[in-house]
């Protein structure tokens, strides 16, 4: 059974997913960061695959992408770093990245490699649903990969239901009209959007992302969904850290508790 | 030419293998709203009357199709120049911004955002925003702001806000990223006027259709002058490719008309300092469409180089990728030095100082075969005023 499915079978509430950029702040930090995220008590790890032109991301994640690329990260390198990670990491791991680097690697080769190293799912923000259904769904399923789609406050009910039909891991609820890391806190308007989606009774669990940074926003998000995703705020912790393992664990514990 | 070989966009937004709409879900409602409405709005009499009226009285269309006799004599062919350089604001870009701003109004939008490289599309956008009394924000790479200062001031005089793109390489590619991010952040009341035949479907086709007035006019103008609608060749420069798409549009499916695209060779196709996308690029995804782009083996987008800021883009519009792929278009790479020489040559022979972008199309005459009876139309996409600094620095005149 896919680790993402297993996770949500056992845990319906306060699921915490942490996004970080592979190869940042130092090229070889990828695996140590994953270990610290697990040790801190998060439930899912999202490994960001850096790209030169991340259009859905704000300055924090853009900068981390640039630095990681300057450090020499590549998809090939990420797979090298991930080889054998399942000896240490037992929680679900998702790769998140833009389509172009993956296309250049080769979609089937990429999926095969994901399965080989033990990746459970994918989040590809610029892969539209229809293209996924037409070109990639069969492939992802063949290699046991769960694909996560994003929805935003602008997404229509009809489309949310289509997305719900075509995914089986979790739905990534973008909390506002925003790129990553743009706004802090949760407004009344966002709450009404959370309520609206909650009332749809979707078959998939939902995690809320964008603008989640601390215990308070995590708790609010969790009240309207199955949990939340932290990205930019975590990147900031990592960026300023003198002791990665300690700082990461302390930060995650401060969010969860 | 059978149905399968026709150059046209399919219902999913593809030209052959290229195109589509690879965008984050946050942009889907906006792009979908546009896709669902642009054809019916553009087909309405109300839209057409306003669009055609403004093209005539405000832009100054039709632009002349000018027989360049001294240039013709030198090159041994009958060469016509399609004078887009005489459009208001100095380039063809305004054909598209007029169209899109009327469309934005019909969609009830209140704000306009746009990207710009050299500043020509930014100026054309700021111009129509002033004309329509709409709020205007232009994203421009920090480096381009420094090297295209007069255009930055033109936009400001016209009332636009110019926001520097400080990410990545700080040029056109990053200005486009910033504009897309701004659209994600303001999805409801804002329309994004993309300046070229790039971006997610329906932009490439929509922009091409607004620019297609160029080849529409060439047809009847050439008929008057030569007794035929069809030249033997049409030559245009290609960065993203909007002026080329406009000049080629009504000839896509006329096999007797050769379509020649002049890309920016920069310091040489193999110098590492080039924007010759079809020569150095491979299929991939950039700014929402599948196309040909310059990238590393790992799929990171490579920074292009051209002396002309308007051609300094790492990709090309998907329709051009398709023209290249199926062999319908002939692509040549024109180096910086040759484009500059052609710009000076045209100035001396015809009294027309072209934009350096357009000078690439002039130089293409040296890179292709043709015979002396051939009728050649070169799309002179813009005038050289904006490039005076570059000409002066170049100095060889």
Automatic annotation (TrEMBL), chain A:
Catalytic machinery residues: 46 (proton acceptor), 57 (proton acceptor)
GO molecular function: tryptophan synthase activity
CDD domains from the UniProt entry: Tryptophan_synthase_alpha
Keywords associated with the record: Amino-acid biosynthesis, Aromatic amino acid biosynthesis, Lyase, Tryptophan biosynthesis
Protein origin, superkingdom: Bacteria
Subunit structure: Tetramer of two alpha and two beta chains.
Function: The alpha subunit is responsible for the aldol cleavage of indoleglycerol phosphate to indole and glyceraldehyde 3-phosphate.
Family: Belongs to the TrpA family.
Name this polypeptide is given: Tryptophan synthase alpha chain
Protein species of origin: Algoriphagus pacificus
Taxonomic path: Bacteria, Pseudomonadati, Bacteroidota, Cytophagia, Cytophagales
